[in-house]
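Friendly challenge for the regulars: who can give me the structure tokens for this chain first? No prize, just bragging rights.
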Amino acid sequence: LASRGRQLATGALVAALLLAHSVAEQRYHDEQVLWSRAARIAPGSPRTWLGLGAVRLQRGDLQGAGEAAARGRLLSPESPGLLRLEAMIACHGLRRREAWALFEDAERQAGRDAGQAARPAWKQVQRAACALELREFDRAREHARRAQALDRFSADAHALEGLALQRLGDLRGARAALHRALATDPHRGDLRRWLSLLHEEAGGLLADAPLEAP
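First reply, four minutes later:
Bragging rights claimed.
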């Protein structure tokens, strides 16, 4: 069974991935307060409900996130962003079939509207994150590697591969993937914390293991 530290590391990264990209990288001191205020001021904006749902999901409030996503879908039933949010909520709720079906719906809707199309690499990153939540570790690694093939500078793609490899028991591969992520984005404190947890788990196993060049 995964340790509490590993579970927290995975959950925090998955939530951060969703928030960072679905909410257009807005940086707020208290996102939930501000998005709640935005919902009161502009309740007719689907983007507002997307933002509020994402921060609620980040805090583990699946019910609140689902309610926000549902409000947004009433306004924009075919929004790829809201469909992806609902897919990630389903991932966190371990509703496997629903999650993958929602991702497919989001892909179809994005394909119909070039202005809403997600970056190809990011679509694979989201799927890798979802697969991790569903404990489909081989699938998570596959999607993470597809993301790297599309964008080799994606720190998230390398980090998610590392998390998948850790769960598959390849601790040296996990460390190499995380170091590639840090080489791409050296300011990510969450990745440094995960590396520390990995070394705690491995004990002395990684002490003399050579690192793969980034």
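The radius of gyration is 17 Å. The chain has two domains: 1-118, 123-214. Your move, everyone else.
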